[in-house]
């Protein structure tokens, strides 16, 4: 009665049906925050077909549009994870590290919808910088690591401050704690003035400001020979914040790399425990220039800072040292290689009050936030803790 469809027609219809079904399934999996789907299917697919910067730019756009998992565990909170940090009550101690949203393009949605307890943007320099030549980011897929040498590419304080001001309007109490990471321009004549500019632009709109001296452009400030210069910088930044006489004074954090000798760590511990220098907390750590022996990826010989899973043990040891050298008197933000609750718990036990992640998003997508929170809460309950703050630094009390 009906003409027999052509083979081509059947094939096209079938492909449309299958394609539509796959898109629908993928959309449902994304909405429901499927950890397995994003970790095993979506992120490997994106990483295979998009280069590193393209996939990063896509992720920032997705975040800016608020396209986070709306169901599942991402936004679920646990009473064990509610904590106090630098005078703020956080819904959880899991933060987004600087480097993901360099230019403050997704602040509001990240703070409201991502499931993070704190969100940090930057690094931002006074003058816009294009950064180093491409390619400047390399995925170590087999190692779940990243080597980058961006050179602080960013839009500069003017454009970023405008976005920050707009995002911080009518900020709700249940949004994430918000910080801005500031750094000096590569060709600056006086690093102190660059940090002063950063403070003046962002202090009034931030819960905290991060003094980033862990980049190649400012790393020499951490050497023993430059100790006095770093001390002067910290005093200068504190004086700048004090002069602003803000009703709500932002906390000042110092971010350091893990590649420091014992004497350099002790010098920094001495500085940050001295009230004269005005440091409220440490971020430990930035990327490492070291290359662990067990790296499998062909990109492992690239020049740049290594982050992700290969950094985990190195950064945890640095956290442990800084907690010991400061006698636990200065709160620590633990950063480097976190992709599970066990990774976060390891850093907390070593001395971190809160933790940050970034590279894990590249390999596992945003559901990793819910995974880390759920697993961390389970580990705390297993060990008899009713709150995450009870576990901070427990490795030092054994």
UniProtKB/TrEMBL annotation:
It comes from the Eukaryota. Keywords: Flavoprotein, FMN, Membrane, Oxidoreductase. Pfam families: DHO_dh. It is an enzyme of class 1 (oxidoreductase). Its EC number is 1.3.5.2. It is found in: Membrane. It catalyses: (S)-dihydroorotate + a quinone = orotate + a quinol. Its cofactor is FMN. The keyword Nucleus does not apply. Pathway: Pyrimidine metabolism; UMP biosynthesis via de novo pathway; orotate from (S)-dihydroorotate (quinone route): step 1/1. GO terms for molecular function: dihydroorotate dehydrogenase (quinone) activity. GO terms for biological process: 'de novo' pyrimidine nucleobase biosynthetic process; 'de novo' UMP biosynthetic process. Residues 81-380 form the Dihydroorotate dehydrogenase catalytic domain. GO terms for cellular component: mitochondrial inner membrane. InterPro entries: Aldolase_TIM, DHO_dehydrogenase, Dihydroorotate_DH_2, Dihydroorotate_DH_cat, Dihydroorotate_DH_CS. The keyword Metal-binding does not apply. NCBIfam families: PRK05286.1-2 (NF003645), PRK05286.2-5 (NF003652), pyrD_sub2 (TIGR01036). Belongs to the dihydroorotate dehydrogenase family. Type 2 subfamily. This is Dihydroorotate dehydrogenase (quinone), mitochondrial. It comes from Ancylostoma ceylanicum.
